[in-house]
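note to self: dont lose this again. the chain is below, predicted strucutre after it. 338 aa total, dont forget to put it in the shared folder this time
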Amino acid sequence: MLNGHGDDIYGLEAEIVSNFSSNVYAQFDLSGLQQHLCTHIKNIRSYPEPEADSLAKLLAKHHNISANNICVTNGATEAIYLIAQVFKGKKSTIITPTFSEYEDACQINGHKLSFVASLSQVNKDTELIWLCNPNNPSGSVYHKQYLDKYITKHPDIYFIIDQSYESFTDKQYTFSATEGLKHKNVILLHSMTKSYAIPGLRLGYITAFYALTESISKIRMPWSVNQLAIEAGKYLLKEEKTGFDLKAYLTETNRLMTELSNLDGLIVLPTNTHFFLCELINRKASELKKYLIKKHGILIRDAANFRGLDDSFFRIATQSKEENNLLIKAIEQWMQLS
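---
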């Protein structure tokens, strides 16, 4: 397992007042969900459904597909490991830099791994392609029309497309569940953890052709999704709350990026979502991270441990305007230090 993901507050002694290291939207109003879960806390005395069928049925209605095309998981991460296990020993290609769990899951399950920077570089003999869209950590995307054509041209390759951040980008970039099901070789990963800001509950799901969801369901352990997570998922779907204004959020992201790009010694890379990479010139992200924690109680994501990046990169996820302004000033102060 990669040592060091975002949101590593649990390992810090300092108090963090602004967390830019996690891609979860921190301003989501969870008060209604919290009250709902409090009224259902007694349900933890009973085992949850073995495969979260009641939630799968609601998700099926939400996406206008069959429940047979859905597999509810303990976050998107469980889905990644289950898929790697189903395709044990296959030839996998991972588009990098990206989420480390694809590589970890494949290594555990004996995949023959290749790493490329884009789909155009994929070897013809690969059997699986792992793609994050929008991509973590870069925020880059592949347009779904391009993906649709590419997938159609390669019917013998399975495409695992992680759409955990689909709620944070324009719909022209990501597949709907029904669009994904047009291809028998596509597995889409979805994250309620990200869409509804509930990382502590761990809740995700797979949408795919029935033969694939059936194979995945056969190897998963029962009760992997806990009682409160199932209840939370049903509540959030019934309430149909998105929790944020995407247009306003991306507008604030663009403002933050513009302000940071005006700082000498810092390169801000383009994005199509609410998080993005920054590159320091002749400085280390780890040193900036230490300074921000100690002096300002601000946490960023040191991106040095992403395959394909080095110690000059860090990732930021947009927060409130006030927090963003504090971050800009704090980084500017650090830049001015001798």
